[in-house]
Amino acid sequence: MEEYMKKNLLALLGIVLLTFTSIYSITQNTLASSKQQSIVKKISAGKDKNFNYYEFVKKDGSVNFVSEVNAKYPKTHLLPFIKDNNTGLNIKQKINDDGTIHVKYDGNPSLNDNFQNAVAAWNKLGVIKFKIVDDASATVDVHGNANAKEDANNPDYEKGNLGDTNNYVDYDSSTALADGTKMNYISKSDIVLYSGIAKASDNNKDHVIIHELGHALGFDDLYGQKDRGLVMFSTSQVGSILLNNLGACEKISLQHYY
């Protein structure tokens, strides 16, 4: 996912808006390859340390090429968190008094199960805990757009995007890590899932929402080739089979920042 900052930051009550735009590309060809109903053979076509490549041969003899991403993880290492442009400090969610981060979903009901899958994936790490709520206590709001008109009403939307995360930073509230590193808290995170995501497989939907929730937690995008196997890597091919693993890299990073 390619990150950019808004040129004009929102100046209201000491809160600033940071915007991160997904560049998950969406095409009919790649989407079609994610919906295999009559596969009779899966042939390995090559692999490297983070990817396995397969050809799926269907009953009619046609062949579709699909990559299985995140097959293996790179060496465990601390992942970067987002830095606020104004202060240069990393940002993260503030844990509520009940020990959780409240998150709410509304909008397209067909994405609700995928939203719950994504929440469960992060909670499984056992470091932070998202709590699904349906009231104003949510500091992370996830909205699924129902149609293209709703997409167009979002000023951040660009053709092909499947999701965006906007983090609002509270400059009046800060914290420090055990080593003294100062951080700003995120006062609010708004995640929008664009209507095009509805055409993707459930596997791909889960991946996009896991990625966007990662931004709400503070994780930055990854661009290095050594990180291609990680969920926070900047791009993933829609139509690929994504393993959607969250593991040691994300866990030690959450333990460091939280």
TrEMBL record:
Residues 111-221 form the Peptidase M10 metallopeptidase domain. Signal peptide: none annotated. It comes from the Bacteria. Keywords: Hydrolase, Metal-binding, Protease, Zinc. It holds the Pfam family Peptidase_M10. This is Peptidase M10 metallopeptidase domain-containing protein.
